[in-house]
Write the structure tokens for this entry.
Amino acid sequence: MKLATWNVNSLNVRLPQMLDWLTANPVDVLVLQETKLTDDKFPAAEIEAAGYQVHWFGQKTYNGVALLSRSAASDVIKNLPGFDDPQARVIAGTVDGVRCIGAYFPNGQAPDSDKFVYKMAWLEALQRFVAAELQTHEKLVLMGDFNIAPTDADVYDPIAWAGQIHCTPQERAHFQALQAQGLCDAFRLFEQAPKSWSWWDYRNLAFRKNQGLRIDHILVSQALKNEVRACVIDKLPRKNERPSDHAPVIIELA
DNA sequence: ATGTCGCGTGTGACGCGA
């Protein structure tokens, strides 16, 4: 079973690219972030024609998530229960016995901003949600754009980024709290090339200079850890003529 | 380099978010 996450930065712009990618990478589950579409504009027919079932949850201009799967997803949840949120950031469903949670974590803008306060509140709610989901789903995968670089090894210039957004101790503590719940950063189960990133700023020729961050992650529950066969970042779509600023991350389970 | 995208507003540059 293969699962993937990709922040497409507008599905309206990236739909052809995403369909091409699925043809080349026929994963069983794909979660999307930053679809930036209201639900009435979601391209369900095109995705279904490609052989996927799909659930979506969006809004105008910002955010928006989707869950694509070969098999039907059951018990689909949109956003965090009990956390009243005008922003569409979470979609979860059970596919082939695996609880799949796709999430677009808040960016947070800057550590001294209102958006950071919101990010922290959202992360608290996520911790509670994951804890509850683990009670009923032993096999669980949390994947998406976390907007957190968990360690300095996930940052191209850790000195410049020290204490900056994505790298604050508070954000990293939340990542560690997820690990303390038994979730495992699948990418780090394997030897990886140094300077492996999942996001490169559009500015400053960042991709060409490989100046990026690893902020897109796939975390697996303890019951799945021994089933993980591979976890890779696919840089290829970032080389396209009109790329998303994020690359997809893929996991293979036994 | 405050260096680029994408969206919405509303017709063409600008503000916002990332």
